[in-house]
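cron nightly-structures :: item 1 of 1
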Amino acid sequence: MKQKLYILGLVTAIIILAGTIFKINHLAGAGKLLTVGFVMLILLFLPLAFRNIYRAEGTTKNMLLYIVSWITCFIVFTAMLFKIMHWPFAGIMMTIAIPFPYIVFLPVFLIITGRNKNFSIYNTVFVLMLLMLNSVFAGLLSLNVTRNRVNDSFNLSGNYTAAELVLDKIPSKSPDNPVVREINMVLSTVEKYRKLIMDHENISAGQWGKSPETILKPDIKGVAAKALLDSGDIPEGAELLKGLKKLITLLEFTPGYSELAKEAPRIFDIVSPNGNEADWYSWKFKENNLSWVLIYLDGLETNLKMIKATVK
């Protein structure tokens, strides 16, 4: 049994190591390797390892410790996997996973091992060091992944800005055209939102357009929602959503734009992951980071100008 356990542990470690190397070098298959490796670690190797140690002791007095140990590993490693893979609720899971070992595992460990007079204090110190290293690693993981996503957003911002410079050079269509008129109204709302958010955070348009990476606290959440709510736009983003839906309805009844109208909700990104319109406001402006809200507005502006350029 021990030999099989050692082989399983070695295979699991190799898969996770390979997935990590692939992830660092942005190679295909990294996500699958890490997912398989973590699943094997959490659901196969750790349960078998804890059971093997428990049976070797020949006593039931430490059963609670092994159960809590596995639950702690399950929560911590699952949260790390979600964060690495950018899956939904990763932030919430990391928030739970970082303090969990100290709140749940450590008290159980100290109480149970404290009853054993032969338990070495060095083992306790070793466990405390492991917990400390786990917290540092989890914190750095969160910061690193978030920073990478923010940097990707900044790159998108530059792409949208470059596209808009070209679109602005295209001769403007007749303002009497209903589609053009409605697009201009939505564009004014986009500009209004962007100004409200930037004024709220003391960010200039030039600063965001030329060097967005210099803005303060680009990953802070809730800023956009607060800025819009303070302006009386309740719920946050309601004016923009109303304008976009009105534009889509207009496109449906405009000859030659029916197919565009079908794809418009996806292009304008006005469908929340839950498909519930009531969730869209919170999803876009409350739960999103500051930089991603501004990126969304930049992208929406670019798409609207592209549609406007096609109007005959």
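cron nightly-structures :: done
The chain has two domains: 2-146, 171-310.
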